[in-house]
Amino acid sequence: MTNYLDQSPAVRERFDRIKQRDVILEVKHLHKRYQSPQGETEALRDINFKVHRREFVCVIGASGCGKSTLIRTLAGLEKQTSGEVLLDGKPVEGPGRDRGMVFQGYSLFPWLTVKKNVMFGPQMSGFGFDAAERDARQWIDLVGLSKFENSYPHQLSGGMRQRVAIARALVNQPRILLMDEPFGALDAQTRCKMQSHLLDIWRNIDITVFFITHDLDEAIYLADRILVLKPHPGEVQEIIEVPVPRPRSSEQFSSPEFVATKKRLDDLIHPPVDPNSAEAHDDDTMKKSLFRMTDVMDSVE
Amino acid sequence: MNAIARRIDFMSHSPGGRKLLTLTSFVLPILVWCFVSYVPFVWHPKVLVEVPGGVDYFQPGMLVDKDEFAEQLKEMKTQGLALPEGKPANPIYLPAPHEVAKALYTSFVTPPPQADAPWLHQSLWHSIQVIFWGFVLSSIVGVPLGVLAGTYATLARLSEPFIEFFRYLPAPAFGALAIAVLGIYDGPKIAIIFIGTFFQQVLIIANTTRKLDGTIIEAARTLGTRGLRLITKVVVPGILPDLYRDQRILLGWAWTYLIVAELIGTSSGITLFITQQARYQHFDNVYAAIIIIGIIGFGSDLLLEKLGRKLFPWDQAQKRG
Q1: pLDDT at B318 exceeding the cut of 60
Q2: ipTM for the predicted complex
Q3: What does DSSP assign to residue A186?
Q4: Chain A partners of B229 at a C-beta cutoff of 8 Å?
Q5: Closest chain B residue to A114, measured at CA
Q6: Which of A100, A210, B46, B255 matches a 20 to 30 Å C-alpha distance to A124?
Q7: pLDDT, average across residues A123-151
Q8: B 191-230 residues inside an 8 A Cβ radius of A
Q9: Residue A75 sits at the chain B interface (C-beta within 8 Å)
Q10: φ, ψ for residue A34 (rounded to 5)?
């Protein structure tokens, strides 16, 4: 059985190269607590990590582990209780155009056409109409939606909308692209296409990607490193260097490295259940409460 | 069309079915009205005297109660005098549809009873102006305040409790005060429309603003939008189709305050026409005027709805409507 920690020489060499690049994002001792009706909740506890230039980092964890809180804090949409988020060594204060964000839900401006949506960022930063339009066209072309530049978001499919959202975030030429489960609402086939499309974009432009997902395959397929969060409170459990070589393709899903990594992630996210825990008890009662409501002879198996 | 209707009511599915239903919703009340007016045995509690006969106080064209007519008829029979003749009729306050239809036309072409009194179309125009100014003045203050209160929770907490209290005060209660402050002409009338509209307007528009999807605002912030531009470039365009719908509903409410508003100070506009015609018992003209108000209100709303579809092509709620 292949160990997920084993790396081929090519992969190891690649990670060494990545580590020599500049640090784009550094998170130091990040804590986040907030008041809820049930009392004080600790969403994030002592998060520390670094992201290098042009690295692709995925964050994975069970629901409610603070993934969204983490990325929203990086985006500046939420304020940390303590700790630091440094972008190029400078502390992050509030949202800014140096960090592009793609949301899970549809976040396009419904009253603007595709082109105007992408022009929004440049126009906000003081570009004239023509300059903004030129930039927007270039990025719309990059995500392959030139034919739809005058369509409204509601006329596009889910995958196309997220491509516009990516173009809209990238047109500002951010240092890092923050993606909060961007393909979570898409069907399996579209999601697969979007993943390879995103890898193409990432390969061709100077961008660092910080990507949140709860899909293990997605994380392994896309990421250089995977940051595994443990819930209640959200803590970094492990940072995994994905041993699957690049360029990635869907054939690798059954490769030994891929399977080993997935096994490890699975163990981390779904730890063996303690027989005395409430969860185990719940599983137990669920099985017990099942009784037959059909004819014994009428078996479906 | 709403989601419930789409799932449980099948007649409202096809465009043809929908048109038929719209038409029927107007035809049904008119049919009831025709039925009551033209079928003699349905209601007709009065008798229209045609020949007075021996009854000394009867006159041709006079309306008397059915019982009274029957009594006099019996009386004349016993006394052997000439019998009165008449036909069943409805009270004067319920004219038949054709009479109202005629009045709809004649009230426009008949000169006013006094030389200096306004024609009907002048009265109407005056009413429309009162509504317009009341509504516009209310909107100039109410829409921005509503949007700001919907955006900034601090402003909402500061303003909304008082507005919430004030909106329960009936606008006409301020009539006397409005006259004292603004005189007896159009000022107090516009003020009543303003008071009737403004307080609802702030609350409704603040609520609409709050319903804007937060993700859109966050997306704009990550794209470098902040401060006032967040309101002008994101919040306002984001709520515009709903704001427009709110304004249409509020304009309808403004119309309902019109009659009360125009009674304040010197009566004017369509209200003056209605009260005068009622005093002369020209109820066909009264109905005609009421119907004209309905047509103007409903018609302008239909036009605004059509315009809304042109203005907001991205708005799917309206498209489904």
Answers
A1: no
A2: 0.87
A3: S
A4: 124
A5: B314
A6: A210
A7: 93
A8: 213, 215-216, 218-226, 229
A9: yes
A10: -140, 160
